Amino acid sequence: MNEFPIAVIMECRRLNNPWVDEAWEAVGVVPAFADPGPGVAEIVSEPERRQWRIGGHALALFRDEVDNYFLNMSSPIPKVFVMWRKEGGQALPAAVSVSYGEAARWLDSGEQVDGVAMSREIADWVGDFVNTHYKPAPRRKVRRNDPLAQDRRPQ
User: Which Pfam families does this UniProt record tie to the protein (predicted)?
Assistant: First the structure.
């Protein structure tokens, strides 16, 4: 198992809405080699939005998910998926992944998941793993059942 320490940037935006006061979203994932420890630090404080850097997380890669990593890396914009939960008025990341399959499982179970554009450092790390471990499924020859095939034989 490989791990890449990261911090997640969570943002809270004020809304002008009679039913909902605010909207939370994961807006960034940054490498955290220098500061791998947990911690919440406010990095932006404006009247309409606030952001927090939340450390102590790590991306992990597993060989049985390599097909899903390949799908992510071959998409136009590879993403890091952040599953988060609101706890006591603050949205906190609960898990992070670069697997399409894992993100889909989280969404299917009703979790809040945001996709954040992957940084170059993370993309290089995931790309190396995919290049090392991904083996495309062998192509199978398909036999077509064509009832008109006999009529198309050369005469």
Answer: DUF3305 (PF11749)
Give Cα separations from 40 to 19, 83, 112, 140 (angstroms): 28, 17, 20, 51
* Ranges of each domain in the chain: 2-134
Whole-prediction pTM value?
0.84
How far apart CA 142 and CA 138 sit, in angstroms, is 12
Structural contact between residues 91 and 10, judged by C-beta atoms closer than 8 angstroms: yes
Q: Say which residue the tokens 């940054």 belong to.
A: 30
Partners of residue 9 on adjacent β-strands: 28, 53
Q: What span, in angstroms and rounded, lies between the C-alpha atoms of 67 and 48?
A: 40
Q: Which of 31, 22, 74 is nearest to 50 (CA)?
A: 22
> For the segment 86-134, what is each residue's pLDDT rounded down to a tens digit?
988 899 999 999 999 999 999 999 999 999 999 999 999 999 999 999 9
